[in-house]
Structure formats: C-alpha cells, structure tokens
# Entry
Amino acid sequence: MISFVIPCYCSSVTLPEVEREIRVVMEQRATKWELILVNDCSPDNGETMRIIRQMSAENDNIIGIDLACNFGQHAAIMAGFRKVSGEIVVCLDDDGQTPADEVGKLLDKIEEGYDAVYARYAQKMHSLFRNFGSSVNETMAEWLLGKPKDLYVSSYFAIRRFVVDEIVRYRNPYPYVIGLVLRTTKSICNVDINHRERQQGSSGYTLKKLFGLWFNGFTSFSVKPLRLATTSGVILALLGFVYAVFTVVNKVVNPATPAGWSSTICALMIIGGMLMVMLGLVGEYIGRIYISMNDAPQYVIREVCQQRQSNEKM
# Structure
C-alpha cells in the first residue's frame, strides 16, 4: 500500500489531473494506493473542498480532510500523516508542478533500502521569490539541522512508515517536517525529477508565510540561534571594553581630545540594537514554549470525507 498525502490550497482546477496521474502510474505498477487530500482552509469560497468531497465520494481510496483554519503546509501534512495506512508515504504538491507520474523513481529508491527519498530538480520552475525562499530554507537546514550539504530537500518526497510513525509523535504546534525527518533517519537520498511550470494560479507562499516557516526551523529543533546571540554579546562586550581602554589612554596621552559624543551615541545604538535583537530571539523561544504548554493544536479538523467509513457504517 502506497499512501499519497497532498496539502491543498486553492487547487480545485489542478487536483483532478494530479489524482489521474497517480491512479495511472499505480495501475501500471499494480500497487494498492490511497490518497489523502488536506484542504488548508482555501480562500476560494469552498471550491477546493467541493472538488475534494466529489473525488472522495467517487473513489473509495481517497480521503478528504478539511481544516478549520489555515495552519500552513507542514501542519496540513501532519494531519494527512495521521490518516495514512500505507507502508510507504509520498508527499507532493497540489499544483501539478511535482509530476505524480514520476513517483516510480522515488519508490524504486525506497525499495533499494533508503528510509527517505527527496526529489531533486535540474531546473526549478518556481518564481525568483519562491526559489530565494527555498535557498534560504536549504542553508538554514544545513546550519541548524545538520542536513548534509549534498542533500536537496523538497516538497516531493517518499518515506517509510516507521519514519511517519515517529514524526506524528510530535504533538507541539509549529511542526517542521524537514526537521522531523532529519532527526529520525540519516538514510536519505535524492533522485532527479522533472519540474513543471505552474499551470494555474500562483504559489500560496507569501513573504509572511516564508518567514513563519523559517522561524519554525530556527526555533523548533535547535538552540544554535541562542548560542549565536550569546557569542555576539560576548564579542560586543569585548569590543566595548577595548574601546573604553583606548578612550581612557587616548585622553591621558592627549588631553585636548574631544569628548567623543558622536562615537558614544553610535556605540550605544549598535549595542542597544543587538541587545533588542537578542531579547526578541529569547522572547520567541519563550513564547513558543508558552504556546506549547497551553496545548495549542497543530491543526483543527472541520470535516473528514471518506467513502470507506460511510460504507462500513451502512
């Protein structure tokens, strides 16, 4: 059994074609499969969820999940992971840019013995803004999460069931799936996949959402930012001490030296700015701890559409 999980956001036009590609390739491989579609509260007047309901009503291997609020792509993936029943789980996008008909390349690598396989694109068809966000995400994962430099992570990947079972043990808000995979297994590889141009609409990742994703990576799985803040504070303190000694010695050697109002103000502004940044970073950690202690949910499910469930009740 192969379980496909797709977080959906304003994708009523593209979803049927993605499902058709999955169905065709799974029939060719003669493999049992299921598809979990998670609507992340798409702001399209319920059109995406309407298509998901229709697809789940017509196919007993499709499950639809409707989230009550927009919790983000990673929270939607977590909701899908908790519904899967397959031995291998594949995640891909809802817009058709990640070709479902090439999923066999991912599955073949899994069968070679890898625990996780990520698609790697020779040429990405995303916008410059989205590519920049992905580049920052890659650098952050290398520095904070210990991602190997030669490993490319993307939204199109396949993982074994034991990895999923470990991931869903994470119950706190602000999930970051890449970090959860990297801390579960090191048996990860890449496989080359074609990347298509977007056929409809635009990416749901705004600047605000990208910053939110980066902060999840910064604060969820590493204390390195706090250590960087501490190191910066020590360096600034040493520089301030050296500058103070220089000022005193210079005043003794040359009494006519001006008091240095401008340099003092500049030093205060730099040090004060750094202190505010460090306090803000510490506050971010404390705020997330506070939210976690209050049992804030990763997501809230409004509705589950599942034909198999209704058949069992009948």
